Amino acid sequence: MSPRTSINQWVQGPLFELARELRFAARKALLGALADGRLDQLMRAHSIGAGDVTYGIDVPTEAVLDRWLVRTAQSEPISLLTEDAGWRHRGPNGHGGVRDLAGFDHGGVRIVVDPIDGTRNLMADVRSAWSVIAIAGAGESEPRMSDVEGGVLAEIPDSRGGDARVFRATSDGRVRLSIESVDGLLVRQDGIWQCDDDARVDNGYFPFFRYSHDMRPAIAQIEADFFARLEQMESAELRTCYDDQYISNGGQLALVTLGTYRMIADLRAFLAAKRGRPTLTCKPYDCAGAILVARAAGCVVTDAGGGELDFPLDVSTPVSFVAFANAATRARLEPHLNAVLPR
Asked: CA-based Rg of the chain, rounded to a whole angstrom?
């Protein structure tokens, strides 16, 4: 690639291939651990990274990213953010190697990668994880969500999965969805993906994410009040309003994009700020690429109160978001959510 390579070319080429490399590494570690009867080793904390705990299954994918950064920086400058190392700035040294750069002002792209979002699912072989990749063009400082121009959201299936879904969002405002074999050799589907326009208030998944034990009572109360309003004012059939606690913000946003989730509310950071006590929350690297994918497909993603969702792309900023399957769904559901949120 060259410094003049377009965002679309980055998404369709190097970042798409990077997502494959990450999937291969994660699945090799998972399948090897299962074959040797040492799955528990993947579930042990390995180290504390810049943004979160690094588990055994994360180690091979972080190694993939390290090698990819060196290969890429041999030919052009780049800034890369990962939860393990934070921001790194690299570029060619003029002799075929790589050198450290002082900061963002190098004329190259700025890329954010969460190699395994959903580590806790995958390392126990319970459910798919996702690689979440976001790319912003050149800039002189740390980018924000509003700077993101392209994204890749790629599935890492558990040991029983034979196919992987990969979303690619480009700066032309479109999303491609491909479904390929986990080894990448067979593409079963590849085409433009757009969300539906159904505005139903039931017969689907409407999760309120309740990961943290200490926040579950407060979130459960908001959820109960929300569905009471849907039943009373929208005549929703609540027995068909399903819950799902998917420990992956990338996976949650993928399911909104697919229309399986009609909405998802992650209110952890919002409520933590209200009560003045920190908790484990979504971070920018967990969701930036996935948010762009969802929006490009026609979903609506806002902050907890329905406002503009923008944040710095770093390893520490707590992020809350609400995502709706489309604008019509937002129009029906958001007033009820806003009515029950604490002020």
From this structure: 20
